Amino acid sequence: MSTVLLSKAEKSYITAGLKQNPPQRADGRHLTDFRLISLETGIADLANGSSRISIGRNVNDNGGGTEIFAATKLEVESISVAETSEGREGGRLAINVSCSPAAYPHLTQITLEDYQHDLTAILHATLSHSSLHPNNLSIIPGKKSWLLHLDLLILSDAGNIHDALFLAARAALWDTKVPKTRSVEYKAPKSNITGSGANEASDMDVDTAATSGFSTRTHLTHATDFELPDYWDEGEVLNGRDRWPVCVTLNLVPPIHFLDATPQEEAAVPRRLLLMFSFPPSSSSHEPTLQAMRTLGTGELSLAQIKDLIQIGQKHALDLYTALNVKLKDEDVRRTLKAQERFASARR
């Protein structure tokens, strides 16, 4: 959603510059260049995973740009056949996008809520697809599972909000740790009384101090509960975290397209195509999978045009995916070194 209003003359000036050879953009970028992307993970101590991403932030005064905060939180859900139970076998994902009123001061509260709902629907429809579902959200099969909350907060919008949301979501999910669990089974202690005395013993109070009915064996066939052998913030990463998709927004000015639009460019070029690609790790050639697609704005696209744009979007998505993975792995190394330094200083 554009945060600025332009006259017809201003829109014409911007689109004419984009169509020139070579293209002319206000910030001097090429049509397929992104602005500076900053990424940080592990910024929320009480979350299971978190990230902050900014696109186009001014390096001199650290201001401006599109900025999004994302965090994940795991909650235990009971699985029941009752209609009121929302728990699912294998766990489920719940996504919510919120917008700071300061990011959209020109919108009314009702319009802002509708916009939040639209953004939430796009992310939830894409990320909750069964092909992306991690298989380590189950706790006790048929009884308990993890509900993974993913909350995103838009702090400021300086254009290209959809790409930024998917980048922040992927970074937070990459950073998420699922606590290790150990099944627990409760058994009544066996009585040593045999014969006719067994029936009498059933009416007697049994001393349970001698033998414990608490079992924490690794493999239990009738587990009734679970415990956490590690601290709540420890655990394993989400299974298949490499599969979480990225979004590429193609801003269309026939016969060209460009990436990472500024608010002025979004106001001048209202037609956009959102392409969400995932990269299954089993694919040695990193052949992307089109997870979702959506058109925004006015006008229509023919089937032939969409097919060509999908091919173009694949290349841009691979570049974005590769660059993001480098940043995420650098963040993992940075945080590991920081933890080692903190541990070393604590031992002195």
Give a topology summary.
Blueprint: H1 8-19, E1 37-41, E2 49-55, E3 66-78, E4 92-99, H2 109-127, E5 138-140, E6 144-156, H3 161-175, E7 177-178, E8 182-186, H4 197-201, E9 214-215, E10 225-227, E11 236-237, E12 246-253, E13 256-258, H5 263-268, E14 272-278, E15 289-296, H6 303-347
Parallel strand pairs: 4-6
Antiparallel strand pairs: 1-2, 2-3, 3-6, 5-6, 7-11, 8-9, 8-10, 12-13, 12-14, 14-15
Structure described in brief:
The chain is built from six helices and 15 strands. With 348 residues, the chain is an alpha+beta fold.
Which fold name fills CATH's third level, the topology? Ribosomal Protein S5, domain 2
Number of DSSP helical runs: 6
CATH architecture: 2-Layer Sandwich
**Could you tell me the radius of gyration in angstroms?**
26 Å
Q: What ranges have pLDDT less than 50 throughout 5 or more consecutive residues? A: 200-216
Q: What structural category arises from helix and sheet content? A: alpha+beta
The backbone outline, from C-alpha atoms, is globular
Task: Name the CATH homologous superfamily.
Answer: GHMP Kinase, N-terminal domain
Strand composition percent: 25-35%
**Average pLDDT figure:** 84
Tally of structural domains: 1
- What series of H and E elements makes up the topology? HEEEEHEEHEEHEEEEEHEEH
Give the class-level CATH name. Answer: Alpha Beta
